[in-house]
Amino acid sequence: MDDLELERGVTALVHGQALAIFRTHDDGVYALGNYDPFAKASVLARGIVGTREGVPFVASPMHKHAFDLRTGRCLDDGDVSVPAYDVLIHDGAVFVGARHREVT
Amino acid sequence: MTHLRPTLVVVGHGMVGHRFVQAAIERGLTETHDVVVLGEEPRPAYDRVALTSFFAAESADELSLLPEGNYPDPRVRLVLDAAVTEIDRAARTVTYVSPALRLSSEPLADPGEVQLLHYDVLVLATGAAPFVPPVPGRELENVFVYRTIEDLEAIREASREATAGAVIGGGLLGLEAANALHQLGVETHVVEMAPRLMAVQIDEAGGATLKRHVEQLGLSVHTGVMTELIDGDADGKVSGLRFRDRPQPLDVEIVVFSAGIRPRDALARECGLDLAERGGILVDEQCRTSDASIFAIGECAAPDGRMYGLVAPGYSMAEVVVDTLLDGPGAFTGADMSTKLKLLGVDVASFGDAFATTEGSLELVYSDAVAGIYKKLVVAESDAGDGGFVLLGGVLVGDASAYGVLRPMVASGLTLPDNPEQLILPASSGAAPLGMPDEAQVCSCNDVTKGQILTAVREEGCEDVKSVKACTRAGSTCGSCVNVVKNIIEEHFASEGKVVDRGLCEHFRLSRQELYDVVSVHGYRRFDDIVEAHGSGRGCDICKPAIASILASQFNGHVLEKENARLQDTNDAYLANIQRNGTYSVVPRIPGGEITPEKLIVIGEVARDFNLYTKITGGQRIDLFGARMEELPAIWKRLVDAGFESGHAYGKSLRTVKSCVGSTWCRFGVQDSVGLAIALELRYRGLRSPHKLKGGVSGCARECAEARGKDFGVIATEKGWNLYVGGNGGAVPAHARLLAGDLDTQTLISYLDRFLMYYIRTADRLQRTSTWIESLDGGLDRVREVVVDDSLGLGAELESEMERHVGSYFDEWKATIEDPEKMSRFVSFVNAPDTPDPSISFTEERGQIRPAEAGGPVVLATTIPVGPARSAVLG
What we know:
The structure holds two protein chains of two kinds.
Chain A: E1 8-14, E2 17-23, E3 29-33, E4 35-36, E5 41-42, E6 48-52, E7 55-59, E8 66-68, E9 84-90, E10 93-99
Antiparallel strand pairs in A: 1-2, 2-3, 3-9, 4-5, 6-7, 7-8, 9-10
Chain B: E1 7-11, H1 15-26, E2 34-38, E3 76-79, E4 83-88, E5 93-97, H2 99-103, E6 115-118, E7 121-124, E8 128-130, E9 143-145, H3 149-159, E10 164-168, H4 172-183, E11 187-192, H5 204-216, E12 220-223, E13 227-232, E14 238-243, E15 246-250, E16 254-257, E17 261-263, H6 266-270, E18 281-283, E19 294-296, E20 301-303, H7 311-325, E21 339-343, E22 346-352, E23 362-368, E24 373-381, E25 389-397, H8 403-412, E26 441-443, E27 448-449, H9 450-459, H10 465-472, H11 482-495, H12 512-522, H13 527-534, H14 543-555, H15 562-565, H16 570-574, E28 577-578, E29 584-586, H17 597-609, E30 613-616, E31 622-627, H18 632-641, E32 654-659, H19 662-665, H20 673-684, E33 693-698, E34 712-717, E35 720-725, E36 737-743, H21 745-762, H22 769-775, H23 779-787, H24 795-807, H25 812-817, H26 820-823, E37 842-845, E38 848-851, E39 872-873
Parallel strand pairs in B: 1-2, 1-7, 2-3, 7-19, 9-16, 10-11, 10-16, 11-12, 18-20, 32-33, 33-34
Antiparallel strand pairs in B: 4-5, 5-6, 8-17, 13-14, 14-15, 21-22, 22-25, 23-24, 24-25, 26-27, 28-29, 29-31, 30-31, 34-35, 35-36, 37-38
Helix pairs in contact in B: 1-7, 9-11, 12-14, 21-24, 22-23
């Protein structure tokens, strides 16, 4: 947890996958795939974290597409989403688990 | 001599003669006729209109209209150095001589030595000759006319030993000639008999505006002055000019006559063709002379008794004759005498009834004496009786950008819009889309028009930029048109009487300007305090960078300081520009574009060692592309050690101040543009602002630094500096406009301090200086009131704010590499800091790296095992 700044992301290598891990203002921790499907680049962890109508989100640094930190769903285009993963905090360490099933 | 095919002889190989031959070839006249062209000059036709550029051209060939030296048609024979001496209409022959014969003063004793040429059809395109009034002394050495390349060569030769020269005649060509003399480094006087410059084309007020422009360039203008005598010295060279009713003479060593032209109609006169009353060969609508087998075109011709001294009507006549010879219906019935040109860098245009000679016509005038802009429209009530107006003509000086729209309106007879003054008011920068037609493309990346955006707003319920983006894709690619999109939406709702929300985003109801004031008044230093007191939620990608910028402008702390780091957009967050594959580019500062060989070598070595793509930027710096985020500190360590500092290419901040070499090296430079550019770049480096800022300094009016394309542009004058503001490239390009002229360096800097701080205080988020100026009530005049006249009494305060910035500047890259905490974020993976991101790969093009096309997220190993919270451990 100490490596996670508030309202910022980091990239982690998890089983060969680049994941973006975010810590929100209220100490929520979220994990998304790092790959921005619009820009086709592995950059999401470097986006600005904030809220949109209460929904925690990250804005991709490329073209500012917003992704819901909880579900990976793109807030600007409902047809697009990035993988979102389960997260558990234990003893100051962040554990990343399975990919969420699609929320419908 | 008998001919199976008729021979067509063209006398004269100037622009019009050339055009005639071209048209004859293109339209098939050479299928039936052999063409012989007799040119008097030693070279084929050249662009006489662009004659002045001869001095800048590598050689005379650059002006040539026939660079190959011959026509691509074997049925056309071009004979140069051939002066026609006689036309025998009865025998249908022309006589011509070579230059050796012409130069001898002996009469042509032996007719056998001259060439005789039979014609079936003769086309006279002998042009015009400069008119030299019978002023005593005109035979002296160093008296010239301005017509041929040979004339220019002679003027250039004479200018090597002259310090001052005069051009007699202040018309179009006279000003061209004056420009040429000035460019040759000769102190230049323009002497005009009429009370104003360009008396034929523009009115009194326009002439006065033009005069100011010309004088600003360092030329002296004397209007209403009649030359009485050219003084000579003992060697028979020019030494001065004396005037009627004016006691003081002018000391000059060169005199160039440009007092009008006279048609060259001597040949026609001698062979008995009818001439017009005031000279010129009289021709009918087919350009046929009083001899049915002889035509005349261009400046030597006088259709309906009138001579046309422009090239365009000459071209029309050439086409008419070709058409006539092909039995076509072509006729020349007069020409549009509209002109638009750039004289000494000043736009001048005149079209239609520029002098309002039509009965009942009215004049609409816009004049900005400080900026040197004068525009006049001549209108009349429409015949349609609908109370509307039609355009008859006009004059534009200083800004002729509207010419393209206005001139066609003269012929169209269309009724003008209700507010015709809009047509000549200062160009709205496009950010105010008033008047932008629905067909206008707003987003060029996705080809979205204004009309499509309005449809999205009216019919699909879009109410803000975000929804318009989603609906039309406008602004979703490069984002440079977002402000225009926003304005279109706001304009639409404003027109429906709805209150337009100027709040920054859903988190703040305040505008950027209001937030700036709030931060300033309360002294906030943290985003959290601001959003708690004045906003809601946790902010977003719109308000966070805006507040980061406001805090940086006011306090100039490090952008990666703990509290503010999370507000920064990705470029500021990593102090580098993110590029398409997620790598970054590095741009060290090279103030004014001046760099030592040692530093160049360091950049080269760094680029080589890190395998970076290098490109010289438009802003006179060197871009190093393809750095992985984790490599940035090592790259910058090398650069900082070599004496480089951050170039802020990543920030909404001052980027570069571009310069030419100025008086240090350039033979035309009048001030040290490099020195000033470096001083300004160092003064404003690191200054965070609503949008990126660029500057330029040119050492003379040639403007090689393209300073007027910048947010602030400085152009040297003989007396100091002219300051222009509000230029930019981008999606809606704008030319900077004159804020104040002839400033000393200290005043220039104080005005610039005020201008930039006023902009930073009051502009909208991501609003460029050009659109900001347009958005102010009063526009540029308002800026001038605040900056120059200090009407708000803010001058000292704005200057001291800038002083605070200058005094608190530090290099943020140096500070970053010295701070382990800031360095800790430059890792590829938090749990595997040395593993490069596998999704980044490069390929090669033209010997350097470039991003490889990405197919999708790269998977190094297997997928993540299923089951909550049992796989990877971080930290």
